[in-house]
From TrEMBL, chains A, B:
Family assignment from sequence similarity: Belongs to the PrpD family.
SUPFAM superfamilies, alphabetized: 2-methylcitrate dehydratase PrpD
Positions of the MmgE/PrpD N-terminal domain: 6-244
MmgE/PrpD C-terminal domain span: 266-430
Organism: Salinicoccus bachuensis
Pfam families: MmgE_PrpD_C, MmgE_PrpD_N
PANTHER family: 2-METHYLCITRATE DEHYDRATASE, 2-METHYLCITRATE DEHYDRATASE-RELATED
Protein name from the UniProt record: MmgE/PrpD family protein
InterPro entries in alphabetical order: MmgE/PrpD_sf, MmgE/PrpD_sf_1, MmgE/PrpD_sf_2, MmgE_PrpD, MmgE_PrpD_C, MmgE_PrpD_N
C-alpha cells in the first residue's frame, strides 16, 4: 500500500502544462485573476498594513513582489500577499473541502515562480497541482476538522507546499518531505472569530509562508514524516474526529478538482450567500421593502449556523459573518458587493430593523446535503399575510451556478479600483493571457511605494 | 471571570527583575547557559545547516546573531537558534508540562533583546516569564495533548510570545493579542518520530519564530482571539481530550515555575533517563558486564512507552529514542553523555546483544505517578540466578535530584567543544554574570563565518 504522501508526490511530478485541457487552463487563469481582485482590494487595510510594517522591519532579499509594492524575500511575500487576499471576503471557495485556495496557494506559487524566473505556464501548472492537493486533503477531513480548524490555513498549507514543490521541480522523495513539513506546521484555530480578530488574515499568510518554507527546506533534503496524513500521530488522527482517506487518492490524476472551485459575488462569508441570493432576488423581483416583512426564517446546514449565528454584529467584519445581518442586508440592498458592506449600512435602521425579524435554524435536509450542496431555505412572511417559500441548493458562483469570465473581470475591475484604470486593464489582460507571460512581476500593479 | 489570557498578560506585565529572588536569577542563568550548551553543540549538524542555508537565501536585516555566525532578522535568528538547540537531546525539560522550554523561549527572547539593545537583566526577566507561561499551559493540557502534539512546539509558542511581549513592553491588551496569535500558529505533530525526521528541529525553531511574529504583530495592535486557551474553538478544546484550566492561573505570580525545570545529563530522550540512571549505577557499582545479564525488564509510564518503544534503532537518532537501546547503552557504557551516542556504539555488539534482552512494559504505579514523577523500575536477572530490583522516581537533573552549577558548566564546556577553550570560558563567565551584561551579542561565540 502506497503512502498517501507518495501518491500525492507522484501526482505532483506528473502534472504538466502540455497535458492540461484548455478549459482547465482557462479556468485556472480566472482563479488567478480572482486572487488579484481580492489581494489588491485588501492591500491597504489595517491588518495588511501591520503585516507590511513587520515585513519591512524584518527585511529580506528582493526576491518577490509584494502586493503593497516593492519586493522582499519569498517568505515575506507569501505572508503579506496571502494576508492581503483574505480580507474583503470575496475570495474563491471550494465547498467540498471548505477551502479558500487562492489566498494560500497562489501567493506561495507566485513568490517562488517570480524568484526563479519561471513562466506563466509554470504558474498555471503549479496552481492546478496546489488546488488538487489541498482540496483532496480538505475533503478527507470535512466536516469534522472544520469545527476547530480553519481549513484554508491548515489544509491550505499542503496546497502551498505542493505548488512550491512543483515549481522547484522537487523529486518524489523531496515532495514527500515537503508535505510532511507542511502538515507539521499546519495551524489556524477558529477561536478568533469570536472577536472578529485579524487572525483571519494571519492564517492564510502564514499558511502560504509555511508552504514556501516546507518547499525550500525539502529542496535541501530536510526530512519530515512520510505518513503525515494517515500516520497514527499525523494530521488526520490529531486534527479530525473522522476522516476518509480515500478522498486523497480516488481518481487522482484523472480529473481536475480546480474545476470545482466557486467564486464569490457577495463580500461576506460564503455560508451567508445562499440566503442572500434568494432574498435579494425576491426583493428585486417583487420590489419589496423591509416594512413589508413580518418575518424571515432561514434554514440551512449546521456548519453555517456554527460560523454565522450572530444577531448583533457591531463591526462591518462581524456583519459579514452574521447570517441574520447578511440576510437583511441583501433584502434591503438587493445585492452584497464589497462597497455595500460599510459602517453606514451596518447601522442602517431599515437593515437593523429587518435583521431583528430574521430567525435562523438548522434544516435537516440542507444539513444532510452539506458539504456537496451549500443550500438554504427561506420562509418569508409578509405583513399582508402572504407566505413565500424560497429555496436554493447552490449559491451563485458555484460550478452548478457559474459566473462568467466577464463577470469576474468586472469584479476584478471593481475590487482593484485603487489602481489606475489603464493599469487594471493591463493586469487583467496579462492574466487572461497568462500562458504567454514570461515575467511574472508584470502581474502586479506598478508604481507602488517600495518596501525596503 | 477574567479571561485566561488577561490573567497571563497581567502576570507578564507584573514580573520585574528587581523582585526576582536571588535563587531564581541564579537558576535562570543556568537555564540560559544550558541553552547555549545545546545550541552550540547542534550548530554544525545537517538539519541546522539546511535551515541556515534557507535563512541565507531569504536574507533579512542584521538584527540578531545566528548561532552559526553572522546576523539576520529576528525571525530568522529565532528559527535557526531554536532548531540548533533541540538536536543533541541534551536540552532542559519540565516534566509537569513535558516542555523543553529553552529551545523555544530563549532564542526568541535573545533575538528581540539583542535587536533592541536590552540588558542581561531584561533577558533574565523575559525568560522567567516565558517559562512560567508555557509550563502552565503545558500542565493544563498534559497528558492528553502530548499524544499527538509536540508540547515544546505547541505550548512553547506561547512561552516565546510571552518572553517577546515582556521585552517589547507590550500593554496588557497587546499581550492578550500576542497570546492569541501564538495559539493560532501553534503546531507540531509527533508523527515525524516514526521516521526519525528533522521536523524535531523545525518544531522549536518555528515555535520561536512564531512567538516573535506574534509579539511583533501585537506591538502594531494586530488583533487575535481573546480566549485562545479556553474558548470553544480554542487551543484546549481543539488540541486536547482533557484539560485543567486551573493550572494556568493557580498561584500565578506567587511562585516561579522555572525552578521546576530539569536538566539532562544523558544525550537521549528524557523518557529513557530513569532506566539509564539506575542500570548505569548498577553496572558501575557492581562492575558488571553485558554477558552477566540474563534479562532486564523496565517498567515505566505509558507515555515513555509511546515515545520510546523501539527494539531495532538503525540510526543514532533513533537510538536516542529507543528505551531498549538506551538501557543497554547505559549499562555497557556506564553513562550516556553526548560523545557516547555515535554510530560505533549504535552497532556495538555488546550493546546490541544486551538490547535484545531488554523488555519494556507499562508499570501501573509509575504510570499513575506520571507526570509528577518520571520514574522507572528495572528488574535485572543475572545469569547466576540473582534478581536485582532497581527503582527511581526522578531522573538525575530533576529538582528533586539536582545537578550542580559546576556540573552544568562542565556540560557546557563539553558540548561547546567546537569553540576555542578560552572563548568557551569567556561565554560561560558572561552568562554566569548575565545580570551585569549590557551587550547580549557577547553571549555568542565569536569568529564564525558571517551569513549574508
Amino acid at each position: 500500500m502506497m503512502k498517501l504522501s507518495e501518491s500525492l508526490a507522484s501526482y505532483i511530478r506528473s502534472v504538466s502544462y502540455e497535458q492540461l485541457p484548455d478549459d482547465v487552463v482557462e479556468f485556472t487563469k480566472l482563479c488567478i485573476l480572482d486572487y488579484f481582485s481580492s489581494a489588491i482590494a485588501g492591500s491597504d487595510t489595517p491588518p495588511v498594513a501591520k503585516v507590511e510594517e513587520m515585513v519591512r522591519e524584518l527585511g529580506g532579499h528582493e526576491q518577490a513582489t509584494l502586493i503593497t509594492g516593492g519586493k522582499s524575500s519569498v517568505t515575506n511575500a507569501a505572508l503579506l500577499n496571502g494576508a492581503s487576499s483574505h480580507i474583503v471576503e470575496q475570495d474563491d471557495i471550494h465547498k467540498g473541502s471548505i477551502i479558500h485556495a487562492a489566498t494560500v496557494v497562489i501567493p506561495a506559487a507566485l513568490a517562488i515562480a517570480e524568484r526563479d524566473d519561471l513562466s506563466g505556464k509554470d504558474l498555471i501548472t503549479a496552481v492546478v497541482a496546489g488546488y488538487e492537493v489541498c482540496f483532496r486533503i480538505g475533503e478527507a477531513v470535512t466536516p469534522s476538522h472544520y469545527y476547530y480548524w480553519h481549513n484554508t490555513a491548515t489544509c491550505g498549507t499542503f496546497g502551498a507546499a505542493a505548488a512550491v514543490a512543483k515549481l522547484l521541480d522537487l523529486s518524489e522523495e523531496q515532495i514527500v518531505h515537503a508535505l510532511g513539513s507542511a502538515g507539521t506546521q499546519a495551524a489556524g484555530l477558529w477561536e478568533f472569530i469570536e472577536d472578529g480578530a485579524m487572525s483571519k488574515q494571519l492564517h492564510p499568510g502564514k499558511a502560504a509562508m509555511n508552504g514556501v518554507i516546507a518547499g525550500l527546506l525539502s529542496q535541501k533534503d530536510f526530512t519530515a514524516a512520510s505518513r503525515i496524513l494517515e500516520g497514527n500521530r499525523g494530521f488526520f488522527e490529531a486534527m479530525s474526529d473522522a476522516y476518509d482517506v480515500s478522498k486523497v487518492t480516488e481518481g487522482l490524476g484523472e480529473t481536475y478538482k480546480i474545476m470545482e472551485n466557486s467564486f464569490k459575488v457577495h463580500a461576506s462569508c460564503r455560508h451567508t450567500h445562499h440566503a442572500m441570493d434568494i432574498v435579494a432576488e425576491l426583493s428585486r423581483e417583487r420590489g419589496l421593502d423591509a416594512e413589508d416583512i413580518e418575518s424571515i426564517e432561514v434554514g440551512t446546514y449546521q456548519v453555517a449556523i456554527n460560523i454565522t449565528d450572530n444577531d448583533n454584529p457591531v463591526t462591518v467584519y462581524q456583519g459579514k459573518f452574521s447570517l441574520q445581518y447578511c440576510t437583511a442586508h441583501a433584502f434591503v440592498m438587493q445585492e452584497g458587493s464589497l462597497n455595500t458592506f460599510n459602517e453606514e449600512n451596518l447601522w442602517n435602521e431599515e437593515i437593523r430593523g429587518l435583521m431583528s425579524k430574521v430567525r435562523i435554524y438548522v434544516d435537516s435536509a440542507k444539513d444532510g446535503a452539506y458539504p456537496n450542496q451549500w443550500g438554504a431555505l427561506a420562509k418569508v412572511i409578509l405583513k399582508n399575510g402572504e407566505h413565500i417559500e424560497l429555496d436554493t441548493d447552490y449559491p451563485k458562483g458555484d460550478p452548478e451556478q457559474p459566473v462568467t469570465k466577464d463577470e469576474l473581470v468586472d469584479k476584478f475591475m471593481q475590487l482593484s479600483r485603487k489602481v489606475d484604470q489603464s493599469e487594471r486593464e493591463r493586469i487583467a489582460q496579462k492574466i487572461l493571457s497568462l500562458e504567454e507571460v514570461e515575467d511574472l512581476e508584470m502581474l502586479f500593479p506598478k508604481n507602488r511605494v517600495d518596501i525596503k
